[in-house]
Design goal:
heterodimer, A: 116 residues, mainly beta, seven-stranded mixed beta sheet, four-stranded antiparallel beta sheet, 0% helix, globular, B: 111 residues, six-stranded mixed beta sheet, 11 strands, 55% strand
Chain lengths: 116, 111
């Protein structure tokens, strides 16, 4: 029962490099989310998706892109890495249906990303 | 502009005693509140939630209280156990399933 799986767990990038953070869930959840957590701060929403083919911006989307081609996967893309993107990234998912809108989000263990 | 605030960065409690973690919010449109627990190098784990139509929700040792007029919620853990030592995040649903998180309170329960 894997839940939400994120890869890689750690990564060091150079300024200007690009990479994709992978996220997969096996709970058949329709909603998926990407957050970042900076030291001493709460989680901030980067992007979210309500289903395959549908994505939207969260609070801090600049410098990131997402896609959702399947229900299970929700990769996060950094095109031109900048030091300000050094953070811990968390992916989450939830099952939301009409009449059951208030459902908790379930999180992966995060990807710690350093950009030097 | 912090819509969800946890003003105590840390809390120390003895085993067996009550732990009370507090959270304040500013947006009266929030309709669902959650508490998450986080251990180092792991993702947040859902603990307990409360809808804005209720003022209390219990689950075993954990109780969440909501005071809408004061825009305040609290998490009570009774009795506290050393395994409860973690960072606790308060979160509020800000519309369309978007969660707004507080900055967290680090709880240390000593034997």
């Amino acid at each position: 029962n894997a839940g939400v799986t994120q890869t890689p767990k750690f990564r060091i990038l150079k300024i200007g490099q690009s990479m994709t953070l992978q996220c997969a869930q096996d709970m058949n959840h329709n909603y998926m989310y990407w957050y970042r957590q900076d030291p001493g701060m709460g989680l901030k929403l980067i992007y979210y998706s309500v289903g395959a083919g549908i994505t939207d911006k969260g609070e801090v989307p600049n410098g990131y892109n997402v896609s959702r081609s399947t229900t299970e996967d929700f990769p996060l893309r950094l095109e031109l890495a900048a030091p300000s993107q050094t953070s811990v990234y968390f992916c989450a998912s939830s099952l939301n249906r009409q009449g059951r809108e208030n459902q908790p989000q379930h999180f992966g263990d995060g990807t710690r990303l350093s950009i030097l | 502009d912090q819509q969800v605030k946890q003003n105590s960065p840390s809390l120390s409690v003895q085993e067996g005693r009550i732990s009370i973690l507090n959270c304040d919010y500013t947006n009266s449109m929030f309709d669902y509140f959650l508490w998450y627990k986080k251990y180092p190098a792991e993702g947040p784990t859902f603990l307990i939630s409360i809808s804005s139509i209720k003022d209390k929700n219990e689950d075993g040792r954990f109780t969440v209280f909501l005071n809408k007029s004061a825009k305040h919620l609290s998490l009570h853990i009774v009795p506290s156990q050393p395994g409860d030592s973690a960072v606790y995040f308060c979160a509020a649903k800000g519309g369309f399933q978007k969660l707004v998180f507080g900055t967290g309170t680090r709880l240390l329960v000593s034997p």
